[in-house]
Specification:
Layout (H helix, E strand, L loop, with lengths): L20 H14 L12 E6 L3 H4 L10 H14 L6 E7 L12 E2 L11 E2 L1 H5 L4 E2 L1 H7 L3 H17 L5 E2 L16 H14 L6 E3 L29 H8 L3 E6 L5 H9 L3 H4 L2 E4 L7 E2 L3 E2 L1 H13 L3 E3 L5 H5 L2
Parallel strand pairs: 1-2, 1-8, 2-7, 8-9, 9-12
Antiparallel strand pairs: 3-5, 4-6, 10-11
Helix pairs in contact: 1-7, 3-7
Length: 328
Amino acid sequence: MLPVPPHFDPERVGEVWRVPYEERASNAMAWARAHGLRPAADDSRRIALLLVDVQNTFCLPDFELFVPVAVDDSRRICEFVYRNLDEITQIVPTLDTHQAMQIFHALWLVDDADRHPAPYTLVSSEDVERGIWRFNPDAGRALGIDPEAGQRHLLEYTRRLVRGGKYALTVWPYHAMLGGIGHALVSAVEEAVFFHTVARQSQARFEAKGRVPWTEHYSALGPEVTSGPAGENVERRNEELVTHLLSFDAVVIAGEAKSHCVAWTIDDLLEEPELAEKTYLLEDCTSPVVVPGAVDYTDEANEAFERFAAAGMHVVRSTQPLEDWLRR
């Protein structure tokens, strides 16, 4: 494993700052020469690092959906990238990408007194049927959505979540807002991705997800619900990303949160047997959603990872030499 470059400061991983691109580019080129790093295009064994939603909104204290231990997860991700610069062919970061008027934000829903739900409210199909929560007609007018159509979709959506074995519709705090600082990658992680890009001459492939108002979109590969009440298309599965990942000899996954976006991404990967068997999960670089007094998905996350391991995926640690995994 390679040493960690001297510019990396583990004490700053929990901060937001501007990456000095020109300086880091110069550092990366010098580092590549010093350590004999070849261009990624020459890799005989191609390895992708899929970084799921390593964004300020999830990973830094005082941001909207801070995942406990995420600062340590991000530090370990950075160290993994630097120590394995010569092995990682391409980094694929996903970005949860939202606006205020979406089905999982409070503005989408109202009760009979036109009040919006509190964050972390769980909305069931029974709640919708009984009129406890309904589609906000004013949001509908702003988006050009007929209120009755919006209500039909809300009811069918909550029913399909149950049928699909998904989590109940959760009203999340406004988060990962497009154009906001919470949407950005953690600064230290952004710097590591940029450093890899220059040192290995490998363009990172950024994947935005979650902009469609009608559905949650935890998985990097597809939304929670793909069609509406009449069978109309809501959002499609990201087949281009699936095909791209299939082109690699190994896919390493890390990021946030272990209980939601990471878990559902991996769950979708299980639908591709060829991809599942060459997937490696960095268990020390991901953590579940835990909000004291509101929600705790630790058990669900651990159960999911046990299921993934039983299905043939490799659960590993970032500090282990990569060669040790690939010999398994």
